[in-house]
Write a structure and sequence with these properties.
0% of the residues lie in helices and 59% in strands. By secondary structure, the chain is mainly beta. Strands 2, 4, 5, 6, 9, 10 and 11 form a seven-stranded mixed sheet that branches. The chain has a four-stranded antiparallel sheet with strand order 1-3-8-7, with no helix packed on it. A hairpin with a 5-residue loop joins β5 and β6. It starts with a strand and ends with a strand.
């Protein structure tokens, strides 16, 4: 199983970026799926994610600016980031709870994509 994330880059404050993540492999089902980030010198934190029940959770710092969407059939999750601020600068990681063909379930991380918000 692999999670492939893309869409990071350099953007000016107030700008927008869209991150995408696709899961591939012998997947039976995906439960929770979403995005985390880690800024230099800080711990990894939740940005936005779907729970296994289909609800969404957002970090307080991104509410009203970021939206998350998911295509269950395609095993993808996207993060639309608007009104970006310098403090959003971080490496963003896709995460998913995946059940594979033999019905074992594990958490998986993507490789990370760097988002830099700077003028």
């Amino acid at each position: 199983v692999q999670l492939q994330a893309c869409g990071g880059g350099l953007v000016q404050p107030g700008g927008s970026l869209r991150l995408s993540c696709a899961a591939s492999g012998t997947i039976f089902s995906i439960g929770a799926m979403g995005w985390y980030r880690q800024a230099p010198g800080k711990q990894r934190e939740l940005v936005a994610a779907y729970t296994s029940g289909g609800n969404t959770n957002f970090a307080d710092s991104v509410k009203g600016r970021f939206t998350i969407s998911r295509d269950v059939a395609k095993n993808t999750v996207n993060l639309q980031m608007n009104s970006l601020k310098p403090e959003d600068t971080a490496v963003y990681y896709c995460n998913a709870l995946i059940t594979i063909w033999n019905l074992t379930t594990n958490g998986y991380w993507g490789q990370g994509t760097l988002v830099t918000v700077s003028s």
